[in-house]
Amino acid sequence: MRRLVVAALLVASCGPATGGASPTPRVSTAASPSSAAAVAGTGVFDGTRAREHIAYLADPARGGRYSGSPGYRDAAQYVADQFKAIGLEPLGDGGTYFQRFPMPLVDLTATPALTRTGADAKSWTHRVDFTESVGGRSGNGTAEAPVVVVGGAAKGAGQDDFAGVTTRGRIALITGPTAGSAVETSFAEGAVGVLVLGDTSIRYSFIPHFFADTIPVLVITESVANELLAPASKTVAQVQNAVRARRSNPAAPSPAFETSVSVRMTLPLTPVHEVEGVNVIGLLRASDPDLSKRAVLVGGHLDGVGTDPSGTIFTAANDNASGPAVTIEVARALAPRRAELRRSVVFVAWAGEEEGLLGSEAYAGRMASSPGRVESLVAYLNLDVIGCCGNTLEASDESAALADRIRAAAARLGIPFQSIRGGGSDQTTFAKRGVPSSLILWSDIILHTPRDTIALIETPRLQKAGDVVMAVTLELARGDGP
Q1: Any idea what DSSP says for residue 272?
Q2: Residues pairing with 281 in the sheet
Q3: What is the pTM of this model?
Q4: pLDDT tens column, 130-162
Q5: CATH number of the domain at 19-103+274-477, please?
Q6: If DSSP states are collapsed to H, E and C, what string results for 10-51?
């Protein structure tokens, strides 16, 4: 899932991708859970089976399911095998469950580094003290230069957080609160690298689109920032207070200042290259000869953020093995109730969500048959980070009517619910094309960290979420919907 705290600050997409080889999916040799292999459904969602699917998909053997990787292809084959066992029609290419499309990708070639140089040299630890941002202005490279503090990196509209300092040829330290595109503004002011405060335990989505000129951008902890500020007898809190004072009163002193500290930062990336993205698509065709040409779409992204050069695997249980797992079990529960359905239901597991919703965009552009094509869809229920945590089920508000329907189902089942602002996942692809769409998730989010393992996944939450998704899908497929 791409809904990250500093995503808007760190990521911008731009530019074409380059070409490369396209591998094809291969059949997984790992065993499926025995209960999940059963063909017959009971008409009731099974949270225990859903957790078994997550255990397979989020096993370290899948390597974090980076799009185009062998682990992702194993996971895609697993989902296809489940769709086949349930009896879904294949809705991919050439009578298969796979919809293949070329997609750009970028990855680390080595572990990024951040070092204070000089007499008081020190190296900080990746994914503990710092992490990287990849995409847009932030790209491959090394920078070594003095650090200049630029507060929130605001420029224009009566604000100038760069006043009184020279940024050109230096590394900008952004403490926040930010205003506008802080990284882009720092680059425009001549920075050769950027350090910005944020969550350093996670691997942010690598967006494989870059501006023509890039600089390395690293996210650091407040503790690291305070170490860099210490020679100037400053702290992050003091700089942030100065930024706020400047926002309230443009005549207040500038938060910017130069330091005597120099650092070396490296962000080693592969060139952007092309891989084969694979969506997995199955159809439960309704019985009504006319209304069956329209469909409810249910699914979530299958890809994760992969494995670090150090060997650390981001197994991506909650983000987002949980979405396809719930999708599979909703399909299994609906299959024996096919006679009740007037509209069809399309079930899907997307590739390329972490790289910028590439799988759902490919589907929207390539799916030409009805039911399935965008024009035939009556709604899309997007399942992301739905395996843990928090006690409140949430749904995004791209479609107020659909969010209200989800709210009503949750209320009938006694599940606390709230609607949230939309964006950040594959429902965006369909909402902008006029399809009533909503993201369904739990209120506390665990994602993009090695802690996101099967141990965090809670069967009762899967059951509650699955019951809601099942209820809403059944209503819509019966024809009682938008």
Answers
A1: P
A2: 348
A3: 0.90
A4: 999 999 999 999 999 999 999 999 998 888 999
A5: 3.40.630.10
A6: HCCCCCCCCCCCCCCCCCCCCCCCCHHHCCCCCCCCCHHHHH
